[in-house]
Write a sequence for this structure.
């Protein structure tokens, strides 16, 4: 009898309150998703920072090329060259190896002519490079001053990060694009 009616009314009332709390006055499902989402993954979390070509934090200006170079270290970190979001060289592509990872140059036997050419391209340390040094460099023919895109770490037993090898170096940035007609 009457007790059954009271239980049904209370159940219906509590169900109504629970449903209105969960669904709210909005479309309903967004509130339910908020309540059911885990506290570790709140929907109000800041989005990841946007990355641009080659993983740069900002886009390059017009007529500039995005790049990132990593020197590599021993057999722990492989060298990488990224240009305009294209990975030109990396361990994954299996096109890197010991020595200087550029065309036709063997880093172990770099002679004075090679060092002079790198200096003409804007290097300030090419003449001082030694065995197992870490070096990253971006230069260009006809550079008036020294390149701002160069880092060098000398191979030294007392400061090497890896056994017999200095730490990996990394540079990134935007290189002015040289026009083909020399302008």
């Amino acid at each position: 009898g009457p007790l059954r009616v009271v239980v049904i009314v209370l159940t219906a009332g509590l169900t109504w309150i629970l449903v209105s709390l969960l669904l709210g006055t909005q479309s309903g499902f967004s509130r339910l998703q908020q309540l059911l989402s885990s506290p570790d993954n709140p929907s109000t979390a800041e989005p990841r920072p946007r990355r641009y070509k080659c993983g740069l934090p900002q886009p390059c200006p017009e007529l500039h090329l995005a790049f990132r170079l990593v020197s590599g270290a021993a057999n722990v970190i492989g060298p990488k060259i990224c240009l305009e979001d294209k990975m030109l060289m990396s361990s994954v592509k299996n096109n890197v190896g010991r020595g200087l990872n550029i065309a036709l140059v063997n880093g172990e036997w770099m002679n004075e002519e090679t060092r002079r050419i790198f200096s003409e391209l804007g290097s300030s340390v090419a003449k001082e490079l030694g065995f197992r040094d870490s070096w990253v460099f971006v230069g260009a023919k006809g550079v008036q001053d020294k390149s701002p895109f160069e880092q060098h770490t000398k191979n030294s037993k007392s400061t090497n990060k890896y056994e017999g090898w200095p730490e990996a170096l990394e540079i990134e940035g935007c290189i002015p694009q040289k026009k083909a007609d020399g302008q």
